[in-house]
Design goal:
Elements (H helix, E strand, L loop, with lengths): L1 H13 L22 H11 L4 H7 L9 E6 L11 H6 L5 E7 L2 H4 L3 H8 L6 E3 L9 H4 L4 E4 L10 H15 L3 E5 L11 E4 L15 E3 L4 H11 L5 E5 L17 H7 L8 H13 L10 E8 L2 E8 L2 H12 L6 E3 L9 E6 L7 H14 L6 H5 L4 H8 L4 H9 L2 H11 L9
Parallel strand pairs: 1-2, 1-4, 2-3, 4-5, 5-8
Antiparallel strand pairs: 6-7, 9-10, 10-12, 11-12
Helix pairs in contact: 8-9, 11-13, 12-13, 15-16
Length: 430
């Protein structure tokens, strides 16, 4: 608004007749714009970050009117004032909140915000899903006319919410229902896609549900658009985008927030972007199972010097061998911490630059170091990539750079940037 006022002044100045050469040129001074309360409010509104749910509410629920709504939420479904989506929708008269469907309910119900709102509802309106896409079925959605998705994705292909999103779209077509996605930031703050595209024969598995990169760097709204169009699902889909969102600050509105701590107490959900990245690396290394029982077990390290990745090996000699192999690599965003005399079988990688951390790169470097140390890389762990080039490359002694180059020249990888850009709702470079 202010820029428009200044631009108008500048245009008006250009229309003035040329000054007499004998006269002294006077500098053009733009008029002072009074910052009235209305202008201040307008500028704040123009520049403030808003979630998709906040946008929809501000539009007086235009996409939900007269619908019998099935709302999908988890522990992160609350706004910037700490009001949960269940609570916000429970008292509206424009539509009927017919069902509340809680994804990964065992964890999500640890949220204070969610638990209190759900307990106030009749039990027959609440569906607690196990952490598996098939738990959502036709019977759960029976008599609903619209599905409202208000769940952020972690940002990883192996996130089970990605498969759940596809199932929502498929069920909506089968049951003639409308789907509304109120967009939220993905939890892993990556700007560019990372990792291999899934193999064709892996498509449909839990870790490679779609032929997309391991980290596609897309929000739920963007990925929903891609899935709906490219897989010809053709659901009646409406995406409500966020306002003033920057990919560099993916979940920054949660990071260090007392509000997030209050709402998420008891869930174990991470809100710090650095820890979320590290947790994704942990999931890749452990093959999605914290108790895989393999030669190595990864976990988050909260050392005095800051967050990091802890690797616990069977035998101190294995930790020493992997340390030696890692020391020969150029690692981004982390350094190898001093050896812990008390636990010689433990190796810690300390964060030095959160922006440079890549879950894909970290896990791949750990696997390469294990292969160099003659340790077996767990099949379950390499399967998380959804691409056989990783396991084949490690078996042949290829470096992480060589493996990365192999997956980057596949036809799917070359096609991906154009496919992704066609569905982005927010600038790719931010």
């Amino acid at each position: 608004m202010l820029a428009a006022v200044l631009a108008f002044s500048s245009c008006a100045a250009r229309k003035s007749p040329p000054a007499n050469k004998a006269e002294t040129q006077q500098p053009i001074v733009s008029p002072v714009v009074e910052l009235t309360p209305d202008l201040v409010r307008a500028l704040k509104h123009e520049n403030a970050f808003r979630l998709g749910m906040e946008i929809e509410q501000g539009r007086d629920w235009a996409d939900l009117r007269f619908q019998r709504v099935a709302l999908l939420v988890n522990e992160l479904s609350f706004d910037q004032k700490g009001i949960g989506s269940v609570e916000a929708l429970s008292h509206e008269s424009q539509f009927t909140l017919f069902k509340v469907i809680i994804a990964d309910a065992d964890r999500a119900m640890g949220s204070n915000c969610l638990r209190e709102a759900v307990e106030a509802l009749p039990e027959d309106r609440v569906v607690r899903l196990a952490n598996h896409p098939e738990a959502l079925n036709d019977r759960v959605l029976e008599n609903s006319s619209a599905i409202l998705w208000d769940i952020p994705l972690t940002g990883a292909r192996f996130d089970e919410e990605v498969a759940l999103l596809c199932r929502v779209l498929e069920l909506a077509v089968r049951n003639d229902m409308k789907v509304i996605i109120t967009d939220r930031p993905s939890l892993v703050p990556v700007m560019q896609s990372e990792g291999p595209t899934s193999d064709r024969d892996a498509i449909g598995s839990e870790t490679a549900y779609f032929p997309i990169p391991l980290f596609p760097a897309m929000t739920a709204g963007e990925l929903g658009k891609l899935i709906n169009q490219e897989f010809a699902i053709q659901a009646d889909l409406v995406v409500v985008p966020m306002e003033n969102w920057n990919r560099k600050d993916a979940n920054g509105w949660l990071a260090g927030s007392r509000l997030a701590e209050q709402c998420l107490a008891g869930t174990g959900t991470l809100t710090d972007p650095t820890m979320v990245k590290l947790q994704s690396a942990v999931t890749l290394i452990n093959g999605g199972n914290e108790d895989s029982g393999g030669v190595v077990r990864a976990g988050l390290a909260r050392e005095s010097s800051g967050p990091g990745l802890a690797l616990t090996f069977k035998g101190a000699e294995n930790a020493t061998a992997v340390r030696s192999a890692l020391e020969g690599l150029e690692m981004s965003g982390v350094v190898i911490a001093n050896a812990d005399v008390a636990t010689p079988n433990r190796l810690a990688l300390q964060v030095t630059n959160s922006d440079q951390i890549s879950p894909v790169e970290l896990s791949l470097q750990v696997f390469y170091a294990m292969a160099q140390a003659k340790l077996k890389v767990p099949d379950t762990a390499t399967a998380m990539y959804g691409n056989k080039l990783v396991a084949h490359g490690l078996a042949r002694g290829m470096t992480p750079d060589q493996i990365r180059r192999r997956w980057s020249i596949t036809q799917e990888a070359r096609d991906w940037p154009d496919r992704r850009n066609a569905h982005l709702l927010y600038p790719a470079e931010q």
